[in-house]
Design goal:
The chain has 200 residues and is mainly beta. It is 8% helix and 65% strand. The protein has one domain: Beta Barrel (Porin), CATH 2.40.160.20.
């Protein structure tokens, strides 16, 4: 009886564990711990720039994903709305820098063992809005940028959990308007992303 019960329990757990395996699509949401690039104040010539790093704050994301399953690999494109926030010292005040963007990661994953998998791939990003509290900003250099996602995850039934690191490849700066000394801020992301996904 104990042996039968153990076998049934193992079968149920195995079925649930691999339920998110296979091709399909679903929803995802989670939290982002974000730090954007540097704030640079130009003092005289470029050799005298004062560079201030951002303090990271928590943001969030929601979106959709699809998955094409292969024997040991998978391809997973995602479309995600992301809201990030970081904080900068501007003059004598602390100002929050909010960015809203549309992210399209295209991930190549490798199944390691059981429900564990790792992945990496480019993340195409389109900035919808950027706002530095109480300070007028010029448009960023480019609304469209490319970054990198790398991470690991685990599938538990129709639920998936993953953690990833994202880094922008190049600077994407915007000038602060009517600020002395002249200053610019880099919207390039550097963030740790925690996601919960549901297979539909």
């Amino acid at each position: 009886m104990k042996k039968t019960l153990l076998m049934v329990t193992f079968a149920v757990i195995s079925t649930a564990t691999f339920a998110q395996n296979g091709s399909g699509f679903g929803l995802k949401a989670g939290l982002n711990y974000n730090k954007n690039g540097n704030l640079t104040q130009v003092i005289g010539d470029a050799a005298n720039d004062i560079i201030t790093g951002a303090d990271g704050k928590v943001g969030y994301h929601v979106g959709f994903w699809g998955k094409i399953d292969l024997p040991k690999l998978y391809i997973r494109p995602e479309v995600v709305y992301t809201k990030t926030k970081s904080s900068y010292e501007v003059g004598t005040s602390t100002n929050d820098y909010d960015i809203s963007k549309l992210d399209v990661p295209v991930l190549l994953g490798l199944k390691i063992i059981g429900p564990l998998h790792v992945f990496a791939g480019p993340a195409f990003q389109y900035i919808l809005k950027n706002d530095l509290k109480d300070i007028e900003l010029a448009d960023v250099e480019s609304d469209f940028t490319v970054g990198l996602n790398v991470g690991a995850g685990i599938n538990l039934g129709k639920i998936g959990l993953d953690v990833r690191y994202e880094r922008g490849f190049s600077k994407n700066e915007a000038d602060l308007i009517n600020i002395t000394p002249p200053s610019r801020i880099d919207s390039r992301p550097s963030q740790v992303i925690f996601s919960l996904s549901l297979k539909l």
